[in-house]
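haha ok so turns out i had the wrong file open the whole time. this is the CORRECT one, sorry everyone. sequence first:
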Amino acid sequence: MASYDWMAKYTPQTEWIERRGVLLWLAFFFIELGAGVFFVASFFESLPAMLTGWIVCAVLGGGLHLVFLGRPARFWRIVFSSGWQTSWISRGLIFVSLFLLFGLVHLALVAWASPVTALLVTVDVFAFLAIIYGGFAMNYVNGIPLWNTALLPVLYVISGLWGGAEVVLGIALVSGEIGIGAGVEEWIRILMIGFLILIPIYLLSTRYTSVTGQISVKYITTGKWSPLFWIVVVLLGMAVPLAAVISSFIAGLEAITVSFLYLAICCGLAGDLSIRYLILRCGLYNPLIPISGAQTIPVRG
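then structure:
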């Protein structure tokens, strides 16, 4: 792309979604999913679910994040330098590192000794910060209206906790902890309603914020990426879990087949992963020169 394109065209960001950038998309997802699983599971004292969340966050999320940085052995420089004062990437690595450290100690105490309430509260605080950090890292980019909205961190918190609650329910079914199913279902119901409400509000608010935001939303809803949005995010990621929740509310959780519950969980996670991809892929920079009728360029596949 010619450098002058930045002056008069709505330019898609590529650093966080193309080539190595795909790793960051997956890292954000797995860090928030793992932390969400741990956070929700901690309220039900489910050791298998907490351990699963910790592993997902550390191995998949943290591992992919370090690979994205290019030189994983030097990540400590980001953590211990003064960059945390201005960089959400630095803050995020600190949040994730402290969550993993304190979380590992808590898991050890649960397995072999007696857990400490103050430690668990500390772990959950850093788990919550790990969930929200990706949204703030993107929100900090002023030049991309699709990201630069206060609703984005809120959306990431709700989706991270919803995905975490879904995984906890799936683990409870596998491990035989059926007793926590009803409680986890309440989490899923509330968080899913929040997700269903927030997605259209987020897109509509971005659409009417600026011309660049309008074009970004157009790419998502009616443009090249609309099949991914309507089929995976809306039909699979929203409609299928909603059907499961309605069926559970009417007939009870025990009346739903396990296979349908697993299908609803997988669809919900696929929808969450896809909406994150769309937000990264369709984020457009404002032109440096705000001219009427500025040209658009296609968002590459």
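The CA atoms of residues 99 and 126 lie 5 Å apart.
again sry for the mixup
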